[in-house]
């Protein structure tokens, strides 16, 4: 499976923006979706956003980031990016990319997202007030 490396994290003030990037060695060719998760301090890892890789350009977002974050892909560079705008202090976390996101649709109104592929080392994002 693809090995991934995240980059682009840093420290920003409330309301600011950051752009994260996930690069895959060997590409994402065999995956359905690639996505981002995050782990806030002292909390469990949670889903942030995902995008389909080979089939269309379907995007998924958690309610916490919807309308503020934008996930995109560049198939020529084998990268998935996460544009984060209007950042809040609660967005502070280590952000991880996963090369194979499974989307459970047992309840289509509330899909479940699981990272089944390789995890990167994570990139920290700190939003200060």
Can you give me a brief rundown of this structure?
This protein has 129 residues and is mostly beta strands.
Question: How would you describe this protein?
Answer:
It is globular, with a radius of gyration of 14 Å. With 129 residues, the chain is mainly β. The strands form three sheets. The chain has a six-stranded mixed sheet, with no helix packed on it. A four-stranded antiparallel sheet has the order 1-3-8-7, with no helix packed on it. A two-stranded antiparallel sheet has the order 10-11. The termini are far apart. The chain contains no helices and twelve strands. It has strands at 3-7, 10-13, 18-25, 33-39, 46-52, 59-61, 69-74, 79-84, 93-98, 101-104, 112-115, 123-128.
Tags for this model:
129 residues, mainly beta, six-stranded mixed β-sheet
Q: Tell me the strand percentage band.
A: over 45%
Low-confidence segments, ≥5 residues, pLDDT <50? none
The number of E-state strands comes to 12
Secondary-structure element sequence?
A: EEEEEEEEEEEE
What structural class do the secondary elements suggest? mainly beta
What percent of the residues sit in helical stretches (DSSP H or I)? under 10%
Helix tally?
A: 0
State the distance separating the first and last CA atoms.
39 Å
Q: Sheet bearing the most strands, described?
A: 6 strands, mixed
Largest sheet, spatial ordering of strands: 2-12-9-4-5-6
Rg for CA atoms: 14 Å
Shape annotation: globular
Mean pLDDT: 93
């Amino acid at each position: 499976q693809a090995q991934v490396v995240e980059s682009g994290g840093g420290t920003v003030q409330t309301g600011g923006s950051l752009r994260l990037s996930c690069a895959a060695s060997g590409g994402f060719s065999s995956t359905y979706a690639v996505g981002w998760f995050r782990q806030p301090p002292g909390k469990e890892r949670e889903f942030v956003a995902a995008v389909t890789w080979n089939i269309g350009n379907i995007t998924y977002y958690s309610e916490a980031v919807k309308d503020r974050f934008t996930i995109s892909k560049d198939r020529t560079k084998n990268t998935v990016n996460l544009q984060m705008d209007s950042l809040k202090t609660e967005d502070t976390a280590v952000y991880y990319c996963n090369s194979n996101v499974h989307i459970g649709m047992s309840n289509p109104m509330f899909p479940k997202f699981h990272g089944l592929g390789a995890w990167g080392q994570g990139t920290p994002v700190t939003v200060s007030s």
